[in-house]
Amino acid sequence: MMRAVCVDVPGGPENLVLRSIPRPIPKDGEVLIKVHAAALNRADLLQRRGLYPPPAGESDIIGLEVAGTVDGLGQGLKGNWKPDDRVMALLAGGGYAEYVSVPEELLIPVPNNLTFCQAAAIPEAWLTAFQLLVFIAQVKQGEVVLVHAGASGVGTAAVQLARLFGAVPVVTAGSREKLQLAEKLGAAAGYNYKEESFVQGVHDFTGGKGADVILDCIGGSNWEKNVSSLAVDGRWVLYGTMGGRAVEGDLLGKMLSKRGRLLCSLLRSRSLQYKADLVRAFVDRALPCFSEQPATLRPVIDSTYKLEDIAEAHRHMEANRNMGKIIVTVTPQSEETP
């Protein structure tokens, strides 16, 4: 048996219940992970409310990224995984638990210099940012990338990756502290959307050209500002709708006049082959940068909560107070330095 966070009735954070359930058994091609730490994502809040169910056949337990140690091996594995190997993993579900079984293609070795808490902050957020920049937007050196929610988990990853690829990130955020964090990570400029027009800021920064790429998790409420901020032939990459899904107005005409491209992407619903290709590309191009001295890339952790305090962790994210990732510790060793 194992402890896991369950949701019997969709609703608020108070509906998250910690109970004992059967431990998963790894299938062919899977590795069983003893979870030391997991991380929160906005999708977790939606799933808790019944608005974002897991893909068919996946675990009903919330949680899209974990770090821990190899505890069991299924049949037919191709990799040289061994018990107690330190790993992090991208999940379609099952992260809020003491154990999770994962296809081996989605395992990533944890760099020796990272704790389990730091490693848990990487898989979903960093693979999402990497996917958006490399697979979807195909960002080029010197391009200006406007990153909304620049102090979020995906935002802090996107800023650093954009710099790594030779692009120029600029961000929006809702407080001076969040903008300062993003700029410390490499953002060339930042705009407080509560106090100023990011459209004017982007145009001033680019000399009227606009952003070549926009990474947008807001959606509806920002559509007109995004189009106004977009460069001719620019790419607007939509990966969330925190600001609503409905659009009213001349979206198509304005996009047509810019020759703009609206590219939409999700990661959780992708095929195993797509995710495996993404993991391999990330491991080749980005993972070594977490181990450099000094490190070129670093996960940003906002706060940590124990598994039994998962409801408080959800409330913290729902209040939009976090800068970087919110981590849930599952074992006492999760924060220890390797």
TrEMBL record:
<keyword id="KW-0521">NADP</keyword>
<dbReference type="GO" id="GO:0003960">
    <property type="term" value="F:quinone reductase (NADPH) activity"/>
</dbReference>
<dbReference type="InterPro" id="IPR013154">
    <property type="entry name" value="ADH-like_N"/>
</dbReference>
<dbReference type="Pfam" id="PF08240">
    <property type="entry name" value="ADH_N"/>
</dbReference>
<dbReference type="GO" id="GO:0070402">
    <property type="term" value="F:NADPH binding"/>
</dbReference>
<dbReference type="InterPro" id="IPR013149">
    <property type="entry name" value="ADH-like_C"/>
</dbReference>
<dbReference type="Pfam" id="PF00107">
    <property type="entry name" value="ADH_zinc_N"/>
</dbReference>
<protein>
    <recommendedName>
        <fullName>Enoyl reductase (ER) domain-containing protein</fullName>
    </recommendedName>
</protein>
<dbReference type="InterPro" id="IPR036291">
    <property type="entry name" value="NAD(P)-bd_dom_sf"/>
</dbReference>
<dbReference type="InterPro" id="IPR011032">
    <property type="entry name" value="GroES-like_sf"/>
</dbReference>
<dbReference type="InterPro" id="IPR014189">
    <property type="entry name" value="Quinone_OxRdtase_PIG3"/>
</dbReference>
<dbReference type="InterPro" id="IPR020843">
    <property type="entry name" value="ER"/>
</dbReference>
<feature type="domain" description="Enoyl reductase (ER)">
    <location>
        <begin position="11"/>
        <end position="328"/>
    </location>
</feature>
<keyword id="KW-0560">Oxidoreductase</keyword>
<dbReference type="GO" id="GO:0048038">
    <property type="term" value="F:quinone binding"/>
</dbReference>
